[in-house]
Amino acid sequence: MVTGTALEAELRRLAGSVPDPELPVLTLEELGVLRGVQMIGPGRVEVELTPTYTGCPAIEAMTADIERILHEHGMAEVSVVTVLSPPWSTDDISAEGRRKLAEFGIAPPRPGAMGGPVPLTLTVRCPHCGSAETELLSRFSSTACKALRRCVTCREPFDHFKEL
Amino acid sequence: MTAALALGDDALVLSHRLGEWAGHAPVLEEEVALANIALDLLGQARTLLSLVGDEDELAYRREERAFRNLQLVEQPNGDFAHTIARQLYFSTYQLLLYGQLASGDSAFAALAAKAVKEVAYHQDHAEQWTLRLGDGTTESHERMQRACDALWRFTGEMFHPVEGLDVDREALRSAWLESVTGVLHRATLTVPDTPDTGAWSAGAGRQGLHTEAFGRMLAEMQHLHRSHPGASW
């Protein structure tokens, strides 16, 4: 029999392995939105999730996916609660998550979103050809969390996961 | 809970107005941008209205007089310049307001700390467009100036007291004026010198008194829910 904490760690691993519904290359763990998993009774588990953006509709799909996977692993009652504080930041995306984003054709957010003006001066590299010569087309792209840019070198447009 | 209703209604009503641009924006990128801003605002509205009661009941079943939003946010989209002037005035206010609330310990602190980062992008979007239109062609300059002038009389209400909203209103007002003045000057626009409250409507949105266009907006926003109560997607 597994102990409570080992079970919690296993459930966290399962919940964290759920793919992001909008960016299926990333898991919720890599996205950094999973805040905690606690047993609150026999067969009852509470999961804390934080949204990337306040209005992000993906949170409902994430909740349903977490409930499903934990039900499948014997949890009779799964409650997913949304927490806002501390606010999610793109700095919460893991190094592996950033690597996968770039591989998927999305320029990853620059580090240091929390701290002042530095990120604004760093270059966003083209995820296709690696060129540093890129320009902003629109501050908002296919989702609120991305900006639309274009590579001056290879001429390809691409999404940039903007710093938050 | 007056304050949660006031801030929640601001976000909800402006979100709906921006959503009206879907299918009508001048370029595709802008359509997507306005819809994304609307979505951020809708997220704020859901959180804020949930502090008061059932979000759907509040959004879809209240009468016009029960809404506590600023008259500014209910103003029709007008031409693109009007939408941008409304965005500049409101996002600058919201950025400063949430900045203050985020550092406090009110019921709004967690939401404000999160939303302030999103609103920074809204403000930047409005600022860049104000510069581009104001310092653009003769026509875009004229239209942008006309829009800034037309909406100015709705800006004073942002700094009126709201029950339960613990903010330094004087600091808010001076920081807002400084920021907006800076943007307008850089855009070669003139800061309106007319009163910032209308003769008959001063501060009325927060008391539930709204302008004519708001009733029509609500009718459209609420009709589906009212026609098909309890319907699900």
Automatic annotation (TrEMBL), chain A:
Native source species: Streptomyces pacificus
Species lineage: Bacteria, Bacillati, Actinomycetota, Actinomycetes, Kitasatosporales
Family matches, as Gene3D superfamilies: Fe-S cluster assembly (FSCA)
Pfam families xref list: FeS_assembly_P (PF01883), Zn_ribbon_PaaD (PF23451)
Entry protein name: Phenylacetate-CoA oxygenase subunit PaaJ
Domain MIP18 family-like positions: 16-78
PANTHER family: 1,2-PHENYLACETYL-COA EPOXIDASE, SUBUNIT D-RELATED, FE-S PROTEIN MATURATION AUXILIARY FACTOR YITW
Superkingdom classification of source: Bacteria
Signal sequence residues: none
InterPro entries linked to this entry: Fe-S_Maturation_MIP18 (IPR052339), FSCA_dom_sf (IPR034904), MIP18-like (IPR002744), PaaD-like (IPR011883), Zn_ribbon_PaaD (IPR056572)
Domain PaaD zinc beta ribbon, first and last residues per copy: 122-162
UniProtKB/TrEMBL annotation, chain B:
InterPro entries: Aromatic_CoA_ox/epox, Ferritin-like, Ferritin-like_SF, PaaA_PaaC, PaaC
Family annotation (Pfam families): PaaA_PaaC
Superkingdom per UniProt: Bacteria
GO cellular component assignments: cytosol
GO BP terms, alphabetized: phenylacetate catabolic process
NCBIfam families attached to this UniProt entry: PA_CoA_Oxy3
Protein name: Phenylacetate-CoA oxygenase subunit PaaC
